[in-house]
């Protein structure tokens, strides 16, 4: 099997390219466009954003001539532009997912409901879909993957996102036969469950980031969502609700991830976790029962065992997304997907005292944050998945700060794609579980 770089060069030598359609020209999307313009064998031929100027500027900054950027919502004009070697800027996301001249669709919107609709439409149009939208994936990724499999296309998360980077370490260690004790990521900032766009505004301005996005990192929601994606891909579970959030440097990880009876700090193996002190890296804790393997690991300065750490000190977010695009198109492989089904859930917790009649806002907002539970615990509590929260969800009763919000606590004032997909996913899971129970009986 050729390396992806050589395979892309071969595609280009043969006069072809992988034609990418992108939805979302924010920070992630803009970086991806520029990165792909530097690559062989691939191009973002059409991009959609509600602000069409964002798209045009992204293309021009990537090196595309302004005259070669065609602004249109017309399918015939878009198709003609792509065939002529130009690129298309549009405000119509469905044009991206339906255009025959697109091979792979990338969702970089960051909005769960929009991401779910983009993925749904891409799969119905038999296009590979790469999700830079982990919030949508952990909510309805199981049913989207099932649909993609049935349609003969790839549903995948993105290389460069922390779950994808963790998955690379897991696949490497698992393929070699190591016992994988734990998988995890670093957290950039101390956990602040009270963070909101107002409290994050000053730091966001310094960093040129969205206050809402920064708040979702500070309140732990993004970390919970990312490790939920890893759990659904690997079958690993949080050691406790919300995970531990240990403080450590890389050298200290092998000792932390010993079982408590062996002097460590965890109760189970095969867990997902986050660490304060090693950001922006990701890690896998591995072990082996083989004497010769341990001898060689010590010789290679990997530590004294019994645990060893594989650590990747970077993840390049959307700049690595082209790797997932290429893997999907060339090899029909996903970087990360919910292969184990719904193993964990990021559930909705009240950030402040809320009253009956209040509308919830969204991830990184003022009203709620995310908390990881096992899927079994989430079902038992009737907990509302965080990805279903938006401005159309209204509380039916008073909720205290820190309380998990359940399905029975809310009502929808307007239906949405992600709610419909989640109902489909839950019904499918229930039917499959009942079938397995009947077969075993």
Automatic annotation (TrEMBL):
This is Homoserine dehydrogenase-like protein. InterPro entries: Asp/hSer_DH_NAD-bd, DRL_cat, NAD(P)-bd_dom_sf. It comes from the Bacteria. CDD domains: SAF_DH_OX_like. Coiled coil: none annotated. It comes from Planomicrobium stackebrandtii. Residues 160-321 form the Oxidoreductase DRL-like catalytic domain. Residues 24-150 form the Aspartate/homoserine dehydrogenase NAD-binding domain.
